[in-house]
Amino acid sequence: MNMEWCASLPKLELHAHLNGSIRDSTLLELTKAFIGKGVINFSEMEHIIRKYNRSLEEVFKLFDLIRILTTDHSTVTRITKEVIEDFASENVVYLELRTTPKRNDSVEMSKRSYVEAVLKGLRSVTSVDVAFIPHCEDSDRIFTPLPAINGHVRKRIFVRLLLSIDRRETTEAAMETVRLALEMRQFGVVGIDLSGNPSIGDWTTYLPALKFAREQGLCVTLHCGEVPNSKEIKNMLDFRPQRIGHACYLGDEHWRQLKSSKIPVEICLTSNVRTMTVQSIDVHHFVDLYKAKHPLVLCTDDSGVFSTCLSKEYKIAADSFGLGRREMFELSRNAVEYIFADSRVKEDLRKVFNSVAKSMEV
Ligand SMILES: CNc1ncnc2c1ncn2[C@@H]1O[C@H](COP(=O)(O)O)[C@@H](O)[C@H]1O
Ligand SMILES: [Zn+2]
Question: What is the rounded distance in angstroms from the CA atom of residue 56 to the CA atom of residue 235?
Answer without folding.
Answer: 22
